Amino acid sequence: MSIDSAKDETTLANSGLTGGDRRDRLSVRVFGDDEIQELHAGALWVLEHVGVLVDSTEARRIFAAGGCDVDDESRMVKFPPYVVQEAIASAPRQVTFAGRDVDHDVVVGDGSMVFQNFGIAPKIVDPETRVIRPSTKDDIETCARVCDALPEIGIFEMALTAEDKPPATANVHSVEAALLGGRKPVCAATLTTAETEACIDLAAAVVGGRQKLSTRSLIYAGVCPLSPLRLTPDLTEPTIAMAEAGLISTFLSEVMSGATAPITVAGSIVVHAAEMLASVSLAQLVRRGTPVVVGGTSGPMDMRWGTASGGAPEFALCNAGLAQLARFWALPSMLAGL
Amino acid sequence: MAGANVIYGMGMIEAGLVLDYAGLVMDNEFASMIRKTVEGVHVSRETLALDVIAELAPLKDFLSHEHTYRHMRSQSSPRLLDRRLREQWEEDGSRDLYERAWDEAHRLLETHRPEPLPPGVIADLRSIVDDADRAAGVA
User: Considering its fold, how many domains does chain B have in total?
Assistant: First the structure.
């Protein structure tokens, strides 16, 4: 018996079936449309009237040239709303993290979903002894190899630190190890221009030159604002170098409600959102169309213990709310979840 | 479920200070279940299966029907989570989830060997890092 037979068509004619074929992704909405507008307007207000502290002279020069109100003495940068709106508009809604080959490319944004390992940890459970010890460059290569095998991991976040390498270049060694170990896109968790340029050279060597790399973002920057509302050179130097090379920057804020942001979920999201938009503005002012991703993880500090309360309901609300805000901006998002 | 495009955190323990391969392998499995859930439910004539229901219910079972065979691979099928009953689990040595995850992690550590980069590229990477070390005065 087949559904396509004439008999079934007759039988099912009065069933109310439309014959449609549909699948809706499961979704959670933390905020209504009005509330999203309020949060967005709140972030713009903070950027316009409070501003963001930017340590680097070069980054402040870029903001000033882009229309921001910059005070070099206080190092504060204030953003007219149009600067932020233009930055949101010029950032692509979808970005492609490139693997060593196209089979390992990952498209992020516009409804896609991919998972990522955690980073960046300074210790590892030794697989032989199960003793927790500082991680090494070899561990990074091995971990990239294991992540290469796990099908749900689309992008290799820099999982570990190379504690056995000199601090000045450890992050470059880490990227070398990750590129050797696996074929998935690699996070270059660099903090300076020099480190970032060296990592761009590494990725260019793998894909066949800087020109080719500008269309194949085998590495990307994973940088964090310093909450509340400060962009340190750790963020601005890699962001500028990556944007000039045409590579992706991911901006990951970690706001702690009640410590580095208001204790309320809404207030925390506003601070987090303002940091995201300031960072996106920098990347777009360096080069319009620079691929960026916004995200991170924000949530409460437990007021009794002074610890980050991972797994708290407020974390879920904060991160889900930020994902919704990113969709409102039509920007790709990267948030903590597992 | 709120539409985050990249969801990170697999393999992390102790508030982000420690990476655990067994945790990484377990999280990979949990991620596959999250993906399955978030993908939602496909609704079509084929999946509503009214014809199959009419053919078999109420007296026959669906196990041997071609429709079941056709769609069985779309079911969630965990490798680590053990859906069997206690007796069979005890017969296999009563190994808990964490131990089974380590087994899988060791299997990957020992057997997974992606194709290496070409030797010339490996040499290029080495010299770029050496240059960076020299420039930073830590060579």
Answer: 1
Residue B139, in any domain of the structure = no
Question: Is B88 part of a structural domain of the chain?
Answer: yes
- Tell if the pTM clears 0.80, that is, is over it: yes
Identify the three-state secondary structure at position A38: helix
Asked if B129 lies within 8 A of A173 by C-beta distance, the reply is: yes
Per-residue pLDDT tens digits of chain B, which is 139 residues long: 678 899 988 888 777 789 999 999 999 999 999 888 888 888 889 999 999 999 998 889 999 999 999 999 888 888 898 888 899 989 989 899 999 999 999 999 999 999 999 999 999 999 999 999 999 999 8
Query: A1 and B51: CB-CB below 8 Å?
Result: yes
One-letter amino acid of B100? R
A226 closest CA partner among A250, A249, A255 = A255
Strand partners, A292: A249
- Give buried/exposed letters for B17-42 (b at 16+ CB in 10 A, else e): ebbbbbbbbbbbbbbbebbeeeeeee
B137 in a domain, yes or no?
no
Instruction: Say yes or no: ipTM exceeds 0.95.
Output: no
Task: Give the number of A-B residue pairs with CB atoms closer than 8 Å.
Answer: 259
Among B residues 61-90, those touching chain A with beta carbons less than 8 Å apart: none
Structural domain including B118 reads 12-131
A-chain residues within 8 Å CB-CB of B37?
A: 26
The DSSP line for A123-170 is: EEE-TTT--EEE--HHHHHHHHHHHHH-TTEEEB---B--TTS-TTTH
Domains in chain A, start-ordered, CATH in brackets?
30-335 (3.20.20.480)
Q: Do A116 and B6 count as a contact with CB atoms less than 8 A apart? A: yes
- Among partner residues A28, A29, A202, which is closest to B128 by beta-carbon distance? A202
Which two tokens mark A46? 């903070």
Residue A241 structure tokens: 């170098």
Q: Which residues of B touch A28 (CB under 8 A)?
A: 1-2
Q: Which of A125, A149, A327 faces B3 most closely, judged by CB atoms?
A: A327
Residue of B8, B32, B33, B53 to mutate, testing the A interface (most A Cβ within 10 Å of its Cβ)? B8
Cβ–Cβ below 8 Å for B24 and A135: no
Per-residue tokens: A22: 């549909």
